[in-house]
Amino acid sequence: MSLRSSVARLLKQRAGSTLRAQRRPAHSVALIGAPFSRGQKKGGVDHGPGAIREAGLASKLSRMGTIKKSAKIGYLAYVQEVSVILKHHLTSCQVYDLGDLSFTQVPNDELYNNLVKYPRSVGLANQVLADTVNGAVAAGHSCVTIGGDHSLALGSISGHTRHYPHLCVIWVDAHADINTPLTSLSGNLHGQPVSFLLRELQDKVPQLPGFSWLKPCLSQSDIVYIGLRDVDPAEHYILKKYGIQYFSMRDIDRLGIQKVMERTFDHLLGRGQRPIHLSFDIDAFDPTLAPSTGTPVLGGLTYREGMYISEEIHNTGLLSALDLVEVNPLLGVSQEEVTATTNLAVDVIATCFGQTREGAHIVFDDLPTPSSPDESDSEEQVRI
């Protein structure tokens, strides 16, 4: 990390009850594709990483950086300067695409307890992802995992905590994904990852085949949910019994997204700054915006609310890893629906790393002044 970034971290102060920080460009982003679908039953979510890449994620991130405008050159020269910078990708955001992980197919992956589906496949895939995320974060990168289904959070968060044991998690989702294998109604592991990660639930979660490597790494105070609106009875019991902080869509309607983010940061960062892991399920958005997903639920986040969440997380300067999951290109009834969903996923990720709704990403240190006219005053008078 540069000296400037280090100093910026030291100078961040609380403003009101929300952490504010001067925007800084992401210095290094590692992209990890995780084309995995066995955490749920609908085919196609393993095509999510490819679709998000095709929507231009890497190129959008690589173009994001700060281009400083000098008042000493004319506007045309400035435009040419910017064009050269963009053409050669000489920006302050370095993108390292690690490609798609290859997951071994597990033969005879029998049900656990006659219900839980593909436990060995899910366990092995997440072990591979955990090792990869840990390596990327340890190398100094901000890590982006592109799914795939949300069972992948088992691996991404576990791998992340190996390097940053004190991290916190913001889980943006229509669903709590905190069923245990013994309370799940569907048996789909994409609805259960948080239960495996929480220490408080360690004695409630059985040892699944393929999960021997996984150890609980979060406490109930380390996670905040945003956007919940489809919570199973057992999940609601868990959230209340263990005092897990969450903001449902009703809470967002009642408080507004600004207050929700303030309270989220107060809860997670009130005692000190620590790395943030954002786990973002595209079904957190209303299905009118993100229709190409497996478990859409009406009444979700608006575009503005989703971007505000991402902007505020970026503004803390503490984002260390991000999951973007559950984009399923095969579930769109038209190409327009698929494109809308993948473009939305790209916007979430790009906004987390500095994309802004406030205009161009160009910093002016001064305004340009008019140059001398080509014609003399007398020549201009004659022409008139």
UniProtKB/TrEMBL annotation:
Cofactor(s) the record lists: Mn(2+)
Region Disordered, residue ranges: 365-384
Record pathway: Nitrogen metabolism; urea cycle; L-ornithine and urea from L-arginine: step 1/1
Keyword terms, alphabetized: Arginine metabolism, Hydrolase, Manganese, Metal-binding, Urea cycle
Keyword Membrane: no
InterPro entries (alphabetical): Arginase, Ureohydrolase, Ureohydrolase_dom_sf, Ureohydrolase_Mn_BS
Broadest EC class assigned to this enzyme: hydrolase
Biased composition (Acidic residues): 374-384
Cofactor binding description: Binds 2 manganese ions per subunit.
Domain of life: Eukaryota
EC number(s) stated in the UniProt entry for this protein: 3.5.3.1
UniProt catalytic activity: L-arginine + H2O = urea + L-ornithine
Pfam families (alphabetical): Arginase
Subunit structure and binding partners: Homotrimer.
Similarity remark: Belongs to the arginase family.
Protein name as it appears in the record: Arginase
Species this protein is from: Phrynosoma platyrhinos
Native organism taxonomy: Eukaryota, Metazoa, Chordata, Craniata, Vertebrata
